[in-house]
Structures are given as structure tokens and as C-alpha cells.
Amino acid sequence: MEGNLKIDISETNRGKEQIIIDRKFKYNFSKLKKDNTKIYRCTEYKTLNKCKSFIILNDNKEVLNYDSSHNHPGNEINASKSLIKHKIKDEIKKSLIPSDIKSKRIFDKISQEIGYICPEYKTIKSQITRYKNKQLFPNVKTFDEVPNIINDKKNKLCYKEVKDHNILNTYYKAISNLCFINIEYIPDIFNKIKNTCMRYKSTCSQFLNFLDYFEKTFLNIYNIKYWNYYNNIDHITNNASESYNSYLKNLFVKKPSFYKLIYTIQFEESKSYYDYHMRIKGIWRKKSRISERVDDINILVEYYKNMEAELKNIGCSKNDIIENWFNCLIRLNNEIINFNKTK
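RE: above sequence
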């Protein structure tokens, strides 16, 4: 019987591995044994059914043991829904540009394979849309959370490809600093970087893929002003909000009573009011490391702002101004790297 089992790999809503047997029964990962074999239990194990069915697989997903003693009927629709969601999510995950994925088209293709037991697309549409949005940038309003996302994407795709190439490595680092320069010239500077990289396309195909991703996502889908710091270089991380969240969490180590909660919040509110007035009077201390880094970036960007004004005054062309901000971008690479090394 075990040799006739049809095994599909899926995942739970939380992204954990799930096994589907004969497209009827779902099994969630339960335990890893000392010999690296994995035990999966029927998803009805923790319900009122308390189904005792389990399956044990090795690393090659070969069945070592299978207890098929289910005390409930199989659910083909539910199993098929999980399988379809997994396959669509997998396509989205593998895509460089998730927004370009046509979920309904993938659904139609998979549903033909599954046949009459396939659920309707509308039953999974909202979940797929949420998952696709998570692969993009949910509720992006500032650049606070974007640098890490960009760097993660770069590192994942192309770091090994550019790390030993001086020019490509310089541009690889420069992309993350576009947020500090004049918005007006970002598209032109980006095109300059991309056109230069095209000369090395035989050795940097993944980096070029990343540049396509960056262009479609940050230059086309999202308005540049949402992630640009050019006229507002004050805080370059969201550490302040993260720190305050941690502070509030520590105030309530245990679940407080209602009156304790109100009293504590009111007390914190009065402190915030005091801090606000101290701040507008200029009495405000930031951590020296963060403050110095912000000051260094501000000084450098201000220098190139003045250079732009001078170039305009003497009648220089737009290309000269683009070159000016391109030089700023490269200088930012060096300044930030040197700052990190010395601190």
C-alpha cells in the first residue's frame, strides 16, 4: 500500500512543511528523530477527532512507516486548496518581481492538473493577495524599513557575483544610498548605473535582474518621495520606535489590572508631553553613534547641494548636475563604510 501512496508537499498557513497523502489527508510536521527521519501527524490529531494516523519519511521523502487508521473521512477539497495555495505561493516566492505574477493564470493551470476536486479561485484569492503583498513592502510610507529589505534582496541574489568586481561592487553598494540624494536626478543616475552594468552582463546577470526588480518596485510602483531622505535626513533607522515599543512592553511584565493600565498610560503621557517641550527647546539627546552618522551624511549631502547650485549658476548642463550627484552617491559609499569601520 505504501508504494501506491501519492505524496504531495505543501505548507501550512504559517509556512511550515505539510504532507498531503492521496490528495485527501493532510499531515503536519511533528518531530525530527535522531536518525533524521521526520514524523508527520494527521491535521485532525489536535481536533475533537484526535486522529492517530501518522507517516514517517526520510530525507528523500520516501515512506518508512505509514499508519492509515483515520477515524474521519478524507477531505479532497481542503487538501486541494492547500496544495494550490502552496504552488502559487512558491511561484510568487521564486519570482524576482512578485507584483508581476498572475495568480489566476497559475491557478487555472494547476486546477487543470487537479481536476474536478479543485476549489474555486475566490476561496483562496484573499490569502494569495496578502501573501503577494508580504513579498513586496507592506504599508511602506518611509524608507525606515526599506534599506534592510533592499540589502536582503541584493545579498540573496547577487553578492557573490559582484564582491570581487570593483565597479560592480561600487554600484551594488550605491543602490542603497539613492535615498539620500536629490529626487530629481535619481532616475537618470539609476539609468547610468544600469547602462554601465550592461557592459558586464555576461558576469552579472543576477545583479542586472536585481536592478530590474529595483526599477519596477522603487521607481515605478512606489513614489520615490516615500522612501527618499534628501530634505529630511534626521533619523535613518526606526530604532527609536522599536526602542519605545520594547520600553512599553517592559512596563507591563504581567497582565495589569484595568486601573493600573490607565494610571501607567496617563503617567507615560505626561512624560511624553514634557519630553516634547524639551525637544522643541532644543534640549534633546540622541545616541552619539547615530547622531554622528546622521551628521556625516548631512554634511556630505549639503556639500553637493551647494555644488548643484554653483553648477546651475554658471550655466552647466543637466548632465553635469547628474554627474555631481553620482559623485555624491559614490562618496556616500566610502563615508558610510569608513564610519562603520572606525566606530
